[in-house]
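Please describe the entry underneath.
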Amino acid sequence: MNAQQNERLTRTGLGTDGGALLRRYWQPVALVDEFDPATDPRMAERALKAVRVMGQDLVLFRDDAGSWGLLDRDCPHRGADLAYGRLEGDGLRCPFHGWKFDATGRCLDTPAEPLGSRLHERVRQRQYPVVERSGVLFAWLGEPGTEPPFPRYDCFEAPGTHTFAYKGLWHCNWLQAFEVGIDPCHTSFLHRFLNDASLASVGDNAGARQFRSASLGEVDGQAWPMSRIMREFHRPELSSEPTPWGLRITTLRRMTEELTHVRVTHEIFPQTFCIPLSPTMTITQWHVPVDDTHTYWFAFFTSYDKPVDKQAMRDQRAPFIPPPLYVPKAGRHNDWGFNAEEQRTRTFLGMGEDDINVHDQWAVESMGAIQDRTREHLGTSDKIIMTHRRLLLKAMDEVKAGGTAPFSADPATAAQQMGGPDTVDGIAPAGTWSTWWQAQAEARRHGSPWSARPTSPSIPQAAGNPTFTTT
């Protein structure tokens, strides 16, 4: 990759090709929990916070009617900072001259103007539509009135009892943060545990013990933890195929003549992945640029069987990534918690066993704020990364030429039933793995108290989307 391509792929501010593309998709901007006084005591006094997305400074608030307002942060009068505004029942008032704006950006009052002035009728602050989905606030940052339908992925279709959302800040560019999530090979090394935990000890704690739970299926009558499979079979065969939302990624690890481990994951274009956490839970994770050198990930945990214990899941994560800022305690400043003795005896990386987010954090932050991809030497194991980069560049070209952004940004595609996507991690019969995983996904849906949509053996290529294959 040359320097010009790397620059194009990583810059997301206003006026950049990457920024123009990402603003064609709904973007998460905050957790609803961030407005809960139990999470942030300041919210009891004032339900307002500054947010920064793709280099844009915004202010997010909730009025007394429960409506969310997301406005440009600089007051349209003389540019004072609305993050310090007075939050009144029906809107936000700038302390500089008292101009007041409601959640739609309409100017309600310009109190220093002469009586009878109609100046306020001619003033609007740029407002960005906000929708609440599964505990996360999503914003539309593109041109007003152009937003596509909101996608109907499982993490949004599941009832609130069966989803949990969390987030964390990484000090790096969004693309390297995302690429670690769609890389099927890194799990065999970066997340390698040198010793397997008892499956009985993992139990319902899989939400905090990723790759510790059992894969579906058995070897000689015994279940195997994902960690053992990832460790012992580290040269997978990779393939991908297009879907209406991006890519379906299949990773095969040939175990014996009779058995193959199959892991089906997804890239949801342009910045989201969906992976199995356990046989009954998935993670769907967005990677949103704060600016070009900082990224928030937003993760949705979706249960297909019993309700999730939200408080327990918060308690598992808060010691490592504490609210209200969600900045990890580990980082470059403390070597990400590296422990040489642990690396020698317990984990391949040496940065903890209870929160593997720090493993990915180290990988992407250690590359530098913006990875220099001109220095890479990619191999066959990087084919998914290369495919995604080609998709990004092609989509940027299409948008720059005045065309429609692909996948969920295309209203024609988004209007389809964008259910799922279905994932699996299991030990399958080698000769029938392709039908086996689909049957497992269908059985999970059939047994779910909220999801009854059957899986489809083949997903048609959406009209207008790029056509490609990888083998």
Q: What stands out?
A: Residues 383-400 form the longest helix (18 residues). Residues 454-471 have pLDDT under 50 and may be disordered. Residues 154-313+367-447 form a domain with the Naphthalene 1,2-dioxygenase Alpha Subunit; Chain A, domain 1 fold (CATH 3.90.380).
